[in-house]
Amino acid sequence: MKDEYDVVVVGAGNAAFCAALGARENGARVLVLERAPEEEAGGNSRFTAGLMRVAYNGVEDLKRVMPDLSPEEIARTDFGTYTEEQCLDDMARVTEYRCDPDLTEILVKRSLDTVAWMRSKGVRFTAAWGRQAFNIGGKFKFWGGLTVEAVGGGPGLVDALTTAARKNGIDVWYRARATGLIADDEGVKGVQVRRDGKTTHVAAKSVVLAAGGFQANPEWRARYLGPGWELAKVRGTRFNTGDAIRIALDIGAAPVGNWSGCHAVAWDRNAPEFGDLAVGDQFQKHSYPWGVYLNAEGKRFVDEGADFRNYTYAKYGRVILAQPGQFAWQIFDAKVKAQLRDEYKIRQVTKRVANTLEDLVKQLDDVDAQAALAELKAYNAAVRTDLPFNPNVKDGRSTQGLAIPKSNWANTLDTAPFEAYAVTCGITFSFGGLRINTDTQVISTDGQPIPGLYAAGELVGGIFYFNYPGGTGLTNGSVFGRIAGTNAAKVAMA
Ligand SMILES: Cc1cc2nc3c(=O)[nH]c(=O)nc-3n(C[C@H](O)[C@H](O)[C@H](O)COP(=O)(O)OP(=O)(O)OC[C@H]3O[C@@H](n4cnc5c(N)ncnc54)[C@H](O)[C@@H]3O)c2cc1C
Predict the structure, then answer these.
(1) 413-451, pLDDT tens digit by residue?
(2) Dist. CA 183–CA 442, nearest whole Å
(3) How far is the CA of 379 from the centre of ligand 1 (A)?
(4) What is the model's pTM?
(5) Which residues contact 3 (CB under 8 A, 6 or more apart)?
(6) Which end of the chain, N or C, is less surrounded by CB atoms within 10 Å?
């Protein structure tokens, strides 16, 4: 083997760079392998808004992550608190009490410290005023535990991490795809790589796998998520096809977690097959709590107001995929127009506008217009207009008597112009993956750690089931990436 490193990290997204930086600060010589060319590098992390879920007890904690917060910004913002207990509760609740308790505790308890550590490496953060706060009487109030975002969103995050890696003397190879692990009875000794189309071997004392899930692999989607999933659109990178999961399983790693589950959202019906970095996450359509959904049969099919958007959006993609034709329309009236998120204003949007509901339903491609009109009228008649609408809390303004209720934020559709947006299912990432222990060592099917092998990020199983609290994906990669890199280096340098 002509190349030799202490630690080789597979992948160049958030988890991978946190691992590389963690390994480097512990003295290791580190190589990062990125399958993508440089212009498409950074994995799903680059497609994100850069939102990170962090537990905090108040603004003093947040200042560790965002030391640039000005006194004026602090004065005009109610950051509230998002305690470790709240965060643990959210993880448990949305995963239906399946998330691995030990890993989840680490994820939550190390969240603040890890993001502050990233700041120390040069990644800058700001408060997510634009996305996660409502302006109440001139003061921004944060809700839903999602307060921190990387400056420049996902692209800013990946740029900052790449710069930090270079500054710290970490080598990065682009167009370098890990195709196998070199291992014997004593553990992992290196990685087989296809670099610029040529196969080569890199020796390593330890290897960190951080190469994402399998969501960009339609064959694995159909195989593990189930029939129909090959028809979903991929929201992010086309390079996360399950490679690192496969090469670990090949040497006896144990699979764990929700292999038939994934994070999937409402995504523009006419979006391309994979994510488009120029559009980023803007094909998503997340304002459904303020309106209603209709399917091809003209029927509502889900409680749009079951909970805050943060706690439902990641599981509703699956619900849309299950509809006839795998699409749905979101319908709003003018009363909530100002509340629609920025992603509704992009040029690449599938949108219809009309001055009456009668005209609107006729414009909904592939929908039974008559049934749709009847459904909207029945919905309007069922809204509890005696209760006030309040987007800042679960307002209990519901429908009554409908087979599919709307539990909060039920507004009548009565004010022109009416708008409709066509969506399908966009898959974000798969939930099933490799079993790790709390030191991020990959565990074998015999229940023992595989010496020299660590994993972090999207390809780890056992953390997310059914659903996911928004902003946990990046935090998960950062927390466990840092631990993986640190431990991989310690073993390599011993
Ligand atoms: C549109 C969108 C918006 C999102 N918004 C948010 C958000 O705001 N907040 C949040 O927390 N999460 C968000 N997520 C989820 C988040 O992106 C992921 O949870 C997180 O980025 C995963 O990080 P990772 O480092 O594990 O994987 P990735 O960032 O996907 O990195 C995987 C890397 O591995 C590389 N790779 C793959 N195969 C190989 C191979 N064989 N050899 C070498 N390299 C390989 C890939 O090219 C890539 O660089 C979003 C996802 C999408 C798609």
Answers:
(1) 999 999 999 999 999 999 999 999 999 999 999 999 999
(2) 13
(3) 39
(4) 0.94
(5) 31, 200, 201, 202, 203
(6) C
